[in-house]
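Summary of Year 1 activities. Much of the first year was spent building the evaluation harness for sequence design. The harness presents a backbone, in tokenized form, and records the residue chosen at every position. We chose the following record to illustrate the format because it has been used consistently in internal testing since the harness was completed.
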């Protein structure tokens, strides 16, 4: 059976051995950099960086490209929206559609940025155990005065981890629901408006049922949001500091490029 998207793939590569805080901080910085870049040269450099990191992870490329597939319709939509609704020099004219050269450029940049975000996020989740991500987020949030907001770093980290864990399950449930409705005769191409409620209603019911079952399971096991121990004892090693320094130099290089 094919692994769900954004799922953890065990390994012993350099990226797998890095501290989760290093990888979380790196993804955050790369996400910030992705929306600061202005030209296609910088976008190409970021794609090259991703392929280098993917090779270091030792994971097959299909693991990362599978993360882009569920969002392909959204990416195509934002590209076409920019292409047809951005004023500028008209490329061709067909009826009321007048794609512009500026729209083509902006659309390609936006699509590339979203793809980069998905690829870097997939790199994080594929090379880091979900419990290690939770521990890393908690340790990064611990110095913040979250108690003033009525929440602890442990609760916030747990919510983030549950969201990450539910994401691949959500995509898997979508595929199962589509297959079940197709088996009942639903044609998603000929009946697009009827297919939306046929897909959304059972999907929503299933997600709510999963959330209720998870809440009951946590409650029955006596879960509390107070400070808890973890099987992951985090400690920054030399490779973590080297990775952060290299990333900082890379970001400076891109910003001054």
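For this record, the design step produced the sequence shown next.
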């Amino acid at each position: 059976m094919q692994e769900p998207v954004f799922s953890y793939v065990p390994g012993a590569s350099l990226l797998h051995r890095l501290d989760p805080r290093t990888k979380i901080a790196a993804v955050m910085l790369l996400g910030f950099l992705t929306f600061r870049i202005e030209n296609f040269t910088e976008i190409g450099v970021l794609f090259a960086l991703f392929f280098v990191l993917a090779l270091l992870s030792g994971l097959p490329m299909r693991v990362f490209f599978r993360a882009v597939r569920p969002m392909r319709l959204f990416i195509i939509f934002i590209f076409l929206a920019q292409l047809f609704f951005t004023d500028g020099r008209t490329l061709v004219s067909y009826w009321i559609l007048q794609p512009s050269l500026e729209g083509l450029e902006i659309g390609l940049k936006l699509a590339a940025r979203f793809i980069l975000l998905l690829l870097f996020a997939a790199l994080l989740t594929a090379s880091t155990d979900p419990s290690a991500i939770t521990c890393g987020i908690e340790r990064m949030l611990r110095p913040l005065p979250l108690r003033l907001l009525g929440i602890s770093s442990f609760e916030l980290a747990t919510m983030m981890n549950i969201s990450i864990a539910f994401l691949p399950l959500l995509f898997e449930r979508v595929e199962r629901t589509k297959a079940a409705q197709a088996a009942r005769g639903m044609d998603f191409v000929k009946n697009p408006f009827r297919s939306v409620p046929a897909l959304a209603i059972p999907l929503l019911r299933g997600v709510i049922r999963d959330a209720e079952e998870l809440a009951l399971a946590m409650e029955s096991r006596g879960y509390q949001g107070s400070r808890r121990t973890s099987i992951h004892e985090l400690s920054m090693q030399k490779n973590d500091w080297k990775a952060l320094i290299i990333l900082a130099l890379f970001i400076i290089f891109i910003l001054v490029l």
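The chain has one domain: 14-256. Quantitative recovery figures across the full test set are reported in Table 2.
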